[in-house]
């Protein structure tokens, strides 16, 4: 590969701890495995290769119930309520730190996951800055939240092919949003996706726990609220369906939407941009809830996912990079060489480190975001 994908660049952008690292509050033993041939998975929408679940079911004779969620807030509510019924969940690392510290995940039995050896040691070392000893988390995929565009529609709306180097200007600066309003601006519908980018744009800590900083970001967002067409929980379909020309979304989802447009015979070019000041880095991980019932089956699936061919299929089909080093030779060149998927070291260094907000600030964060969304 022409890029050192993980060994160097990730160290600049990986994880920002939100306060002192603590051991999980709960030390209770995990519930006994039910011994049933069932596995319940809760994952993000549009985030697994076609046929992977069926292949696992056929090989192991285990029925998989596969549910999806739209944002970290939905997953968090399920975990906090308890008795979610899920055996594997896929949270985002920065957001999930408070879940880990609350004892909501049980330690992995690594003796049952021999394919952990396929993971990149440097990647796992960085992940350990949140999950000490890599005791609870196994990486699913990573990427970044950024600005994507329909190039032809944006250029037509702006009246020029010259785009700002800092792509956040397209969605946060009224000078641009007023012009793009005609072809549609879409935002992910999640405070923990939008607020870090907004805070970063106004020069604040993306994960500031200062209420004044969050309110200042809200004031900036209020200036562009009249120009936003849609807050989306189905960004891939909305982009591919032509509902907008500029969007705040996940890098992989924007690339998936681009593929769908091509498959449908569309000629418009859908691209995730690389802002000069960086997109917001994230890592999504598999974890086993503390109250999971089918723990043995959960370990089987995690080990299955870590096979090189399965991790490569995720990257090839879903347009998200993997932390599975053994999978890299199996990833298609068009994916490996796409600099909006596997970033160069220079672009990796620009990414905004992942993080999370303290529980104490959640009320202000949600209040400001909801006021922005309602246009008040």
General shape: globular
Low-confidence segments, given as residue ranges, are: 1-9, 15-30
Mean of all residue-level pLDDT scores: 90
Fraction of helical residues: 25-40%
Strand percentage? 5-15%
Q: What labels would you give this structure?
A:
alpha/beta; 17 helices; about 375 residues; 9 strands; six-stranded mixed β-sheet; three-stranded parallel β-sheet; disordered N terminus; about 15% strand
Description of the molecule:
This protein has about 375 residues and is of the alpha/beta class. Helix content is about 40%, strand content about 15%. The chain has 17 helices and 9 strands. The chain has helices at about 10-15, 50-60, 70-80, 95-100, 120-125, 150-160, 170, 175-180, 190-200, 210-225, 235-240, 250-265, 295-305, 310-320, 335, 345-350, 360-375, and strands at about 40-45, 65-70, 90, 140-150, 185-190, 230, 245-250, 270, 280-285. The strands form 2 sheets. Strands 4, 5, 6, 7, 8 and 9 form a 6-stranded mixed beta sheet that branches. Strands 2-1-3 form a 3-stranded parallel beta sheet. α10 (about 210-225) packs parallel to α17. The N and C termini lie far apart (about 50 Å). Mean pLDDT is about 90; it is low at about 1-10 and about 15-30.
């Amino acid at each position: 590969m022409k890029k050192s994908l993980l060994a160097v660049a990730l160290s600049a952008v990986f994880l920002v701890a939100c306060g002192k690292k603590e051991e999980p509050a709960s030390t209770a033993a995990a519930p006994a495995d039910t011994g049933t041939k069932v596995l319940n998975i809760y994952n993000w929408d549009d985030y697994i290769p076609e046929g992977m679940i069926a292949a696992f079911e056929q090989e192991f004779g285990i029925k998989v119930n596969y549910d999806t969620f739209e944002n970290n807030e939905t997953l968090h509510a399920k975990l906090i309520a308890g008795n979610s019924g899920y055996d594997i969940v896929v949270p985002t690392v920065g957001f999930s730190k408070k879940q880990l510290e609350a004892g909501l995940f049980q330690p992995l039995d690594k003796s049952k996951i021999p394919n952990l050896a396929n993971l990149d040691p440097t990647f796992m070392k960085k992940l350990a800055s949140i999950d000490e000893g890599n005791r609870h988390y196994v990486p699913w995929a990573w990427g970044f939240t950024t600005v994507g565009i329909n190039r032809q529609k944006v250029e037509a709306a702006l009246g020029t092919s010259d785009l700002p180097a800092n792509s956040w200007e397209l969605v946060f600066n009224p000078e641009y949003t007023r012009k793009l309003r005609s072809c549609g601006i879409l935002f992910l519908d999640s405070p923990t996706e939008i607020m870090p980018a907004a805070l970063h744009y106004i020069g604040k800590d993306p994960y500031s726990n200062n209420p004044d900083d969050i309110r200042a970001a809200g004031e900036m967002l209020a200036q562009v609220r009249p120009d936003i067409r849609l807050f989306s929980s189905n960004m891939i379909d909305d982009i591919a369906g032509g509902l907008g020309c500029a969007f705040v979304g996940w890098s992989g989802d924007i690339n998936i939407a681009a593929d769908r447009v091509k498959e449908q015979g569309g000629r418009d070019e859908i691209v995730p941009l690389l802002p000069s000041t960086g997109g917001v880095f994230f890592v999504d991980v598999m974890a086993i809830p503390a109250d999971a019932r089918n723990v043995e089956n959960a370990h089987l699936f995690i080990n299955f996912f870590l096979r090189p061919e399965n991790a490569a299929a995720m990257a090839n089909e879903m347009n998200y990079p993997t932390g599975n080093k053994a999978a890299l030779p199996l990833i298609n060149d068009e994916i490996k060489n796409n600099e909006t998927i596997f970033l160069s070291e220079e672009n990796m260094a620009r990414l905004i480190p992942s993080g999370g907000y303290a529980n104490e600030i959640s009320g202000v964060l949600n209040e400001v975001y909801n006021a922005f969304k309602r246009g008040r």
